[in-house]
Amino acid sequence: PQEKGSTFLQLGSSTEQQLQVIFEVLEEYDWTAFAVLTTLLPGHEDVAAYVEVLTDGSFVGWEHRGVLTLNLSDGDADGARLRRQLREVSAHIRLLYCSRDEAEAIFRAARDAGLTGPGYVWFLVGASFGGSDALPE
């Protein structure tokens, strides 16, 4: 008997689709002031550029407070530089594009800096979190 070929269907959402949904949520809650935080993960420049496309072509009065590329170099073992970088972001709404491993370090530093409690909203953007059993604390 002849075997039939199989078809692989990926049901993950693209980063662009994720950003579109995030901006719909931001608009719904009238959260217009936000910042984009990235690491040097491949695609970080595309994410920043797409956020510009979404906000520039919108009738919503977005207050884009910039893009911060976080430095996760080995020279910051205690996370002091990362905590300082995170504190410099004035927006309480943060769109974060990074890898899963980087997210753990970033959220640890954010928690230590007091940036994860009430009043702070973080959106994780990217494909590296889909299907995860557990998200970073």
What shape does the CA trace take?
A: globular
Summing up helix and strand content along with how strands pair, one would put the structural category as: alpha/beta
Individual helix count: 4
Q: How many runs of DSSP E, i.e. beta strands?
A: 4
**Span between N and C termini?**
51 Å
Largest sheet: 4 strands, parallel
Task: Supply the CATH architecture.
Answer: 3-Layer(aba) Sandwich
Organism: Crypturellus soui
Subcellular location: Membrane
Pfam families: ANF_receptor (PF01094)
Domain Receptor ligand binding region: 6-124
Structure notes:
α2 links the parallel β1 (33-38) and β2 (63-69). The protein is 35% helix and 17% strand. A 4-stranded parallel sheet has the order 2-1-3-4, with helices on one face. The protein is α/β, with parallel strands linked by helices. The chain is globular. α3 (80-87) crosses α4. It has one domain: Rossmann fold. Residues 6-124 form the Receptor ligand binding region domain. One of its GO terms (cellular component) is membrane. This is NMDE4 protein. Keywords: Membrane, Transmembrane, Transmembrane helix. It is found in: Membrane.
Could you write a compact summary of the structure shown?
The protein has 137 residues and is an alpha/beta fold. The protein has four helices and four strands.
Features:
alpha/beta, Rossmann fold, four-stranded parallel β-sheet, 4 helices, NMDE4 protein
List the helices and strands and how they pair.
Elements: H1 15-28, E1 33-38, H2 44-56, E2 63-69, H3 80-87, E3 93-97, H4 100-112, E4 121-125
Parallel strand pairs: 1-2, 1-3, 3-4
Helix pairs in contact: 1-2, 3-4
Organism: Crypturellus soui
InterPro entries: ANF_lig-bd_rcpt (IPR001828), Peripla_BP_I (IPR028082)
Subcellular location: Membrane
